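Renewal narrative, Specific Aim 1. Our central claim is that a sequence can be written position by position from structural information alone. The example that follows is taken directly from our test logs and has not been curated for this report. It begins with the structure tokens describing the chain, in the order in which they were read.
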């Protein structure tokens, strides 16, 4: 450092962790190196963060390792003679144009499919600019991780409350009774319920005399901390919840409270639940009838209570019905929209339920078209991920000949992975926006990398709409872009321009200006907006000189519920205000929002949407179905793992293998298997050989293998992950099993055979 350089040797910055839904605050210390650039030397929890207050999980401290990972793709790659070579950005976009445009011109826009992965939900540029890519492509073959995990909850919320993110979240901090199904926040940090330190929140709940009931085939880490563990049979949560609904009606325990004036369909729900008595569902759930009755009575009797369901309730054959019944119970017990119950977040930016006409909205339209091969229905503009492989490998008019993936690894995360892997090998062209050569992107012809998380600004546009407390926090980039790197929004904007035919060197500002211009035009024309009637040019001038995601976030904040409204409320929030508050701004505990939060056509809570009511017949039919399989497979999460993409960080995968098969001791005896031995697991579509972990923390007849592993494929350039490869559980999941309303994949409750595999 020169004697004239007044900058300190070390500096500390604060940002929100972008790796999962917890949104924890981080304190990052950087040190100047001899060569000049700064280096991260410490990451710990930000003790002053208004939301996380110092909490951090093992993943958050690894942002340095992710940034410095030698396997991370830093320059664009083109495959030549089967080998990836580094090229310039112009060469990469020229190759994208050369590969994709002739296919689109020859076979139409639907000849190119898109798969958008889960990390985009945690990514500011992905949340904002993927829309431009999809519009530019104009394909109806859109797929995403949403139909692998959460689409049922989006649909049930849209049908009941009028919006896909009108999702009531559990007010854990104030509840007396939390009934949790298919969730393990001790390992996953919560899902569709954004909050740091779920363990602390749960321990405070039970510490103040509250009750936590965890319904799960596994005695997860969360179940171990619970007041009661209910070991249900996989996939049977819908039956349990419907029986609890029946008990509430039969015993006169329904009490809507103030919600009574806002609910339609109450009598219909009573009629639909009538056949599902606890005695009738006892066999299919594996639970005693008296247990089900007690659970319903305790839920109704609690001073405040909430039902919360997650991935274990959505990745099953009755996923949408189960998601619906979660909120039916919240309504019937009077616990919707009240402290300690299930409440709606008031997000500072981006939420559709804080814009436009209050209470009333347009009807949600589903199943507007179907997939080519099996006729599977569209939802929210997407086709089910279970249809992706067949749309590629089935010949005929409309066959998918090219694929674009954005931060997704469907070869490890979608059903019948072997079929999809083979299908990708038959594509004419494939382009991926990704930071790794992984199990999916190894098939790509072009890889367009994005910077590391430390080089990107961050605001949780989606996740803060589902937070357990109303907060806002913006993070500036910690490290600068390296020479030759493009920001992620520029990558996506240039990709969109290539797909539109504007050429490989078109200015990404074209897309950026169109996006913000459209937002401003819509807002000044909206009678409910704080800037209604203002001149668009005036608003755009006030947003200058910012560009990219920061300009959009600034606009969304300033026109949001706490916004300064471009001068209308001088005390309101803007991006500049958030920058002056690096630990975030706390707007307090969740507040009652009904009926304004609704966006239904009649302004009412639809307790019995027609589509869901009709599907109850399928639930009833399932009561008499033969279930003569010996074992069923379920997944599981680990706090050190985040789907498939963080297994290249040594500190997160070292030690005892996370990728084992949990097996009950009684089943181990029957199969002649001992802890540490190998088992062969077969389903209709595939087979894996996996190490056995014998544990009584799982129901007999159920086996569990975590998802996201299987890094031993040829061509994968992940050195650490290959050493800890594990097995791909989605070689066993079956693309013919899905929830017909949402199209969501069935990843839990898959029938399998298990036998000893002597010798491994």
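The sequence written for that structure reads:
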């Amino acid at each position: 450092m020169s004697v004239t350089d007044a900058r300190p040797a070390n500096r500390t910055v604060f940002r929100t962790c972008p790796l999962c839904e917890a949104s924890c605050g981080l304190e990052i210390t950087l040190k100047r190196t001899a060569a000049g650039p700064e280096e991260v030397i410490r990451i710990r929890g930000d003790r002053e963060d208004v939301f996380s207050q110092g909490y951090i999980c093992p993943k958050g401290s690894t942002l340095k390792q992710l940034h410095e990972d030698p396997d991370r793709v830093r320059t664009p790659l083109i495959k030549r003679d089967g080998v990836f070579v580094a090229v310039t950005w112009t060469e990469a976009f020229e190759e994208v144009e050369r590969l994709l445009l002739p296919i689109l011109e020859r076979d139409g826009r639907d000849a190119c499919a898109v798969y958008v992965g889960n990390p985009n939900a945690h990514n500011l540029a992905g949340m904002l600019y993927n829309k431009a890519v999809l519009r530019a492509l104009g394909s109806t073959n859109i797929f995403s991780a949403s139909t692998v995990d959460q689409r049922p909850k989006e649909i049930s919320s849209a049908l009941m409350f009028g919006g896909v993110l009108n999702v009531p979240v559990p007010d854990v901090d104030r509840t007396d009774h939390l009934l949790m199904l298919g969730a393990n926040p001790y390992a996953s940090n919560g899902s569709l319920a954004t909050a740091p330190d779920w363990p602390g929140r749960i321990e405070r709940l039970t510490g103040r005399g509250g009750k936590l009931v965890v319904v799960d085939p596994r005695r997860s880490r969360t179940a171990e901390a619970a007041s009661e563990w209910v070991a249900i049979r996989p996939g049977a949560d819908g039956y349990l919840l419907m029986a609890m609904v029946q008990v509430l009606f039969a015993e006169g325990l329904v009490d809507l409270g103030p919600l009574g004036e806002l609910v339609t369909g109450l009598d219909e729900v009573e009629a639909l639940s009538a056949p599902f008595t606890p005695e009738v569902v006892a066999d299919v759930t594996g639970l005693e009838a008296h247990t089900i009755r007690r659970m319903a009575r305790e839920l109704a009797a609690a001073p405040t209570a909430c039902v919360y369901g997650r991935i274990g309730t959505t990745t099953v054959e009755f996923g949408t019905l189960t998601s619906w019944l979660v909120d039916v119970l919240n309504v019937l017990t009077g616990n919707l929209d009240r402290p300690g119950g299930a409440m709606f977040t008031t997000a500072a930016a981006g939420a559709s339920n804080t814009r436009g006409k209050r209470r009333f909205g347009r009807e949600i339209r589903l199943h507007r078209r179907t997939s080519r091969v099996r006729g599977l229905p569209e939802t929210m503009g997407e086709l089910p991920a279970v249809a992706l492989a067949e749309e590629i490998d089935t010949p005929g008019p409309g066959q998918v000949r090219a694929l674009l993936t954005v931060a997704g690894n469907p070869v490890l995360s979608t059903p019948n992975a072997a079929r999809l892997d083979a299908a990708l090998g038959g594509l004419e062209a494939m382009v991926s926006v990704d930071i790794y050569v992984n199990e999916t992107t190894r098939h790509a012809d072009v890889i367009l990398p994005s910077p590391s998380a430390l080089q990107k600004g961050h605001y949780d546009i989606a996740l803060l709409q589902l937070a357990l407390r109303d907060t806002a926090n913006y993070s500036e980039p910690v490290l600068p872009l390296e020479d030759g790197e493009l920001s992620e929004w520029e990558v996506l904007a240039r990709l969109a321009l290539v797909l539109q035919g504007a050429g490989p060197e078109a200015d990404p500002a074209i897309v950026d200006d169109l996006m913000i211009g459209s937002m401003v035009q819509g807002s000044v024309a909206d009678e409910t907006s704080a800037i209604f009637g203002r001149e668009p040019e005036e608003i755009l001038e006030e947003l200058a000189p910012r560009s990219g995601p920061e300009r959009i976030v600034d606009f969304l904040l300033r026109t949001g519920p706490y916004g300064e409204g471009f001068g209308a409320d001088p005390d309101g929030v803007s991006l500049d205000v958030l920058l002056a508050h690096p630990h975030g701004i706390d707007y307090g505990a969740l507040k009652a929002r009904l009926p304004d939060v609704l966006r239904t056509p009649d302004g009412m809570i639809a307790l019995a949407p027609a589509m869901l009511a009709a599907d109850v017949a399928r639930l009833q039919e399932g009561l008499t179905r033969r279930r003569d399989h010996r074992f069923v497979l379920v997944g599981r999460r680990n706090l050190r793992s985040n789907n498939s993409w963080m297994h290249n960080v040594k500190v997160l995968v070292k030690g005892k293998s996370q990728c084992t098969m949990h097996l009950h001791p009684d089943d181990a005896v029957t199969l002649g298997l001992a802890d540490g031995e190998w088992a062969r697991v077969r389903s209709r579509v595939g087979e894996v050989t996996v190490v056995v972990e014998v544990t009584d923390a799982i129901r007999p007849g159920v086996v569990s293998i975590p998802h996201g592993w299987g890094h031993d494929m040829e061509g994968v350039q992940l050195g650490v992950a290959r050493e800890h490869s594990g097995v791909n559980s989605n070689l066993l999941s079956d693309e013919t099993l899905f929830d017909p309303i949402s199209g969501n994949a069935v990843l839990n409750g898959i029938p399998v055979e298990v036998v000893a595999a002597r010798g491994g």
